[in-house]
Amino acid sequence: MNQKSNVLSLHLKQLKSVVLCTFQLLSKGVVFRAGSQSAAASTQNSLSITVDSILAQKLAPNARIVVWCVTNSGEILADSLDFTVNGAFANEVTVVSIKIKSKDLCLWLLRG
Fold first, then answer.
1. Cα separation of 36 and 74, whole Å?
2. Model pTM?
């Protein structure tokens, strides 16, 4: 079976410098993927999550990614993003850009 993989690239932009970013990828009340990454001490960071066709089928038709980051002072910044998953078919997908902006954290999801 040929498994195609896509990478979800999250580009984070915060008003404050952060030291740690954590994410959860959820669908239908189940956490399918979670992880943490040390952040460059800046106001812009990125997270990448590989999604193969099996995971995409489990996430379809809708998924949510929740991201929270810890600032140098210990403050927690959080945001979430709901998106549509075309996991029922193994066809190539087009690149989609979604931007969510809250007061302190901005997320972009690029899917392709």
1. 16
2. 0.70
* Contact predicate 36/24, CB 8 Å: no
Of 8, 28, 11, 33, the residue nearest 93 (C-alpha): 8
Using one digit for the tens of pLDDT, what is the confidence trace for 78-93? 999 898 887 554 555 4
**DSSP strand pairing (5-14 vs 105-111):** antiparallel
In what helix (H) or strand (E) does residue 38 lie, and over which residues does it extend? strand 30-38
- pLDDT at position 24 over 90: yes
For the domain covering 5-111, report its CATH number: 2.60.40.1930
Strand 76-84 relative to strand 96-101: parallel, antiparallel, unpaired? unpaired
Give the DSSP letter string of 58-108: HH-SEEEEEEEEEETTS-EEEEEEEEE---SS------EEEEEE-SSEEEE
DSSP state at residue 29: T
